[in-house]
Each structure stands twice: as structure tokens, then as C-alpha cells.
Amino acid sequence: MTLSMAWVRTLKDREELVFCSDSRLRFGCAWDACQKVFPLPRGDCAITFAGDTKFAFPFIHAAMNAVSLHQGSRRRLVDITVVKPFLLKAINSMLSQISDFPQGETEYEEPELRLVFGGYSWLKKEFVIWKFHFNPGEREFRHAEVRDWKGLGSARKIIFLGDPEASLSAMKRAQRKGECKPNPEDDVQELAKKRFIELLADRNITDGFGLNMEPFEVLRDMLRSEISPHVGGSPQLVKIYQHLNAQPFGIRWASESRSSIAILGRVLEATEKAHVPVLNPDTLDVERSNGVDSDDASEVEVVGEDS
User: Fold this and answer.
1) How many separate domains does the chain show?
2) What single DSSP character describes residue 124?
3) How far apart are the first and last CA of the chain?
4) What is the spatial distance between Cα 84 and Cα 80, in angstroms, rounded to a whole number?
5) Which of 23, 70, 133, 235 sits at a 20 to 30 Å CA gap from 229?
6) Which residue segment(s) compose the domain that 169 sits in?
7) Taking the CB of residue 85, how many other CB atoms lie within 10 A of it?
């Protein structure tokens, strides 16, 4: 179960692509230490998901391996717009290799999964985000590019993924499979969108330009309020920069009545050092952690202002 987001963050002199997610998986219990945002080896892109992990994790690891094994992709000799159909083809090829179905069944179950893939395109000179979704008629994953959010200011490119979600496609899927339809009150995706719009309205920036860290604040507050059993754990955050590098961030997060650092969902042990910038989720300041090299000094700035 998941609440994931990706958006373009607009600063005074540049832009960043930000991925964030909660850290909970459910399988009869809650496991709040699981990575859901994955930078890909070429460094200029990342992928996240919402939905069935028995499909998500094999797909994501296959995507990471596909990028690593392809020399042109690994060295960024090809643009991310070329990598996107390459990854989609790899995912669909994997589906064609599912076999040995249970007695009475002739095909695999419909994957209840959506993925978000995005990064910086040096051809387009902009950040690009795509959603991968399963098309039940064609029995394969298709893609849709994420555009600016119409009717909500300008230059605001963002996507929310929640699971469960009560969209029309989810309702139809439940009907086809003879399952109970999702309850709209449990739709964490729509709840996050609503809170996001309310946050912009409260700050009188509904008609503004670009986004800062508002989506992260929505995720942070939903996690703290335990608004849903489907999302939990610490936030996890990865940035993609225009200089074609990905940077995971540590998050200072309360754990067992003490403040700990969590990186990509996992809370570090007291003896571990965080070799990444660490974000204070309340002030949105980035601090230098023990072990961050001096080369990372560019990250030790105030996130809420200019960094």
C-alpha cells in the first residue's frame, strides 16, 4: 500500500524533480521500512509505484538492470525519452513469460499496479514524468505523460499515486474481478490531492507559479496523523537535478520517542552515518549529517527558500 508523489520543484534559478513516498508495505501486518523510490543507475531519473508489490518489485529491478546492462543508456548517450519505451517494452516482455497458471485459469491476474518514471531530458531541456498503467484490453502496460495541472496556477507538474484508489478504472477492475469496490473514503490518492489544494488555498497561492515542497508537507502531515492504515513509516525523498544526478535524502523522523534518520524508508542504527543530506521535515532545512562529504556542501542550504 502506498502514497507516492512526483513533481517539478521551481526555484529562483533552476528546477528539480522530486520523488517522495511513504514506507509501508502490508501483508497482514504493517512493515514501515520499505523502499518505494528507486533512482536508476544512469543517475538522471527515478521510478516509484503504487500497488501490488509482486509485480512492482520485479519490474523495478528489471528496469534498473536494463539501464545498467545497456551501455548507451548507462552512460546517458541516449536521452530519457529513449529509455522510457525501452523500459516499457522490458516490462511487457516480462509479462509474456508468466506461465504455469492455477488449474482452471489461462492467464495471469490483472496487475493492480501503477508506476511513475521521470527524469531530466537533455533533448527537451526539461523534466519529464510518465505514468505506466495496465491496459486490460491489450493486456499490457501503456504510458501517459504527466502534464501541468490545469486550473491550478501555472507550471505545476505533479502526479499523486495512492493505493487503494477509487478511480473509475479501479471500480471497473474490481467489478471484472468480482471484488468489493474501493471505498472512496479510503482513497488516499484523492485525499492527498484534496489536502494539497487546501494547502495552496490556505497560503493564497492557488493561482501561483510552480511548486516548492508543498506535496512533501502533505505526505508528512498524512503520515503523522495516521490518516490511513494503507500509508505509514517515514517519508522517503529523492531529487533529480538538471546536472543529471540523483540525490536521496535522509529524513529526521520520530521513532520510539526519539528523533532518528530514515533513508529510503529504513531508520539508521545509532552507529550508522548518513552519507547524504538530511532534511528536517518541519523546518524543511537541509543539514549536514556526520559523514556527508565536503563536496555535498551545496546541499546544506535552506530547502524552503532557495536550495
Assistant:
1) 1
2) T
3) 31
4) 6
5) 133
6) 2-257
7) 11
